[in-house]
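User: Fold this; tokens only.

Assistant: Input:
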Amino acid sequence: MQDRSDGDVNDDVLIEIVDALEENGVDLDSNRLYDYIDPDVLEQLLESATGQVTISFTVDEHRVTVTPTTVVVSEHTGPETAHSP
């Protein structure tokens, strides 16, 4: 888990995601983050959130969960589900 305890959201979140994926064995030389999520939209969502927001997506067999302060990468074991408010 990567922690951004100061709460700042900027390009560092993208670097943290890439680093965490690579630490978990995801080969990003053959894949691009854009193949899974639009990094600009991800940053906009995190920056514009007025409360706690959690964004999750799957890269290969890994679940990536991002909040304004953390990045967590874990093994993905179940089907994708969509949650609506």
